[in-house]
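Quick question about two entries, pasted in order.
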Amino acid sequence: MTEGMRTIALVADLHGNLPAVQTLDRDLTRRGIREIFCLGDIVGKGPSSAETFDWAFARCRVLLQGNWDSGVGYMQFPNDRFYYRQLGPERMQKLREMPREYSLTLSGRKIRLLHGRPVMRELVPPSAAPEKLECLFDPDYQVVGYADVHRQGLRMAGTRGILFNTGAVGNGLGVPMVQYALMTGSVTDAEAPFDIAFVTLPYDREAAIRDAEAVQDGLPRWDSYCRELRTGRYSR
């Protein structure tokens, strides 16, 4: 990497999909990426929430709370007992303590990172009307990165700045692959080149489906989860 430059991998929506996370880990290692930020939803949906939780806490320097992390951590939905039993009280406590957003400056740009919900009141895709997105830049952010939608995207939000979505590692929609983003910029406060790159990786989806089928009697909506992995279309 060029001296004075910083590359951050932005990953999100691991969702208990261990084969997807293992593929992500190999790719990050191959690229020599040392700084990883996770934008939330490390648990839920898939059968391996304890494993994806442990990976995230071992590998990510920044960990933000997503709507699934909050819902599971605070035991908001009784049907999610499978995840409560798998994670145990110590992990559940950590889910409740995760911050909801993070900010930094790169290449002279003030950047806001969040999962989406629960900071957002509703799920808002990057293609939404500008008036639904511009508030994310308040008070003075120039770049906003988020997850939650499970689809990668980038756009200018009116005149406010760059808005992008990382996509999902373990539950990619549209493109049913591992999806994440790389953000590269200068460590100085002066304006400098700034890059956002999207990465998609094929992974062993059938192995992930077999993992879910092996515990189908306990995993909530296991059939919908498997259809989403196969088709890349939301199934709930």
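Here is the second entry:
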Amino acid sequence: MTITIIGIGLVGGSMALDLKNRGFAHKIIGVDNNLNHQNVALLSKIVDEVDSLESAVHKADLIIIATPIDAIQKLLPKILDLTTGSSKVVTDAGSTKAGICRLVENHPNREHYVASHPMAGTEYSGPMAAVSRLFDYKNAIICDKEKSSKPALRLVKKMYDTLNMKLIYMNSKQHDVSAAYVSHMSHISSFVLSLAVLEKEQNEKRILNLASGGFASTVRLAKSSAEMWVPVFEQNSTYILEVIETYMDKLQAFKTAIENNDDEKLKNLITQANHIQKIL
């Protein structure tokens, strides 16, 4: 099988490594508008060759779009146009799904497309961040499966099986609501804490000297790229704003309890938060 991966960064590059090494594909073609990414991916043997979009889609059996969300929206209709009269399958790795699915819901080649989201990553970006086993034992979401052909679903399922991922099926709206809580808000919280500490640190140089592992793990996601996350926040703004309102309510509850020296209230809030252990 020949696979074309559009966007040779952390996600696309990591998929390329394991899909090739585990025998799912015999050739990986990379497409990226960043010349440096192309060169690094070739030199690192993440891809076997790089090509233009049209040529790479023409050669491929499976096309994976692993770009930021705004780029997926621009690319997907054009790529589906290029699948006319073929059995090519198209999937993506975008972390929002409803807007993308609406965009192509009436496309004549919609059945070639499987909307998916492999829920794995790090705070780093670019082909140098690509690593083997990134996806092992993580969850992959497939959305609106009834809109995809059975052969397309089978191929994408086999791809995620090769990556050792657990498949979950959802509709695209459910996905975006859940992603707002478990992924998107985590990044916003990390960005906000980082901004607050950096602002305070200008006056108190000791703060970062005292930073421990807990602080480092909490702000780890603040190193994530704006290029990736600004489009996510825009696309999923309805649900993200709902989560921010809830988050602010809980933050205010902590603030009020601390202001009032209400130890019992603080204890109750922390005890309630501890229940996350049952989920994780």
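Reply: The chain has a mean pLDDT of 94. Residues 175-279 form a domain with the 6-phosphogluconate dehydrogenase C-terminal fold fold (CATH 1.10.3660.10). Hope that helps.
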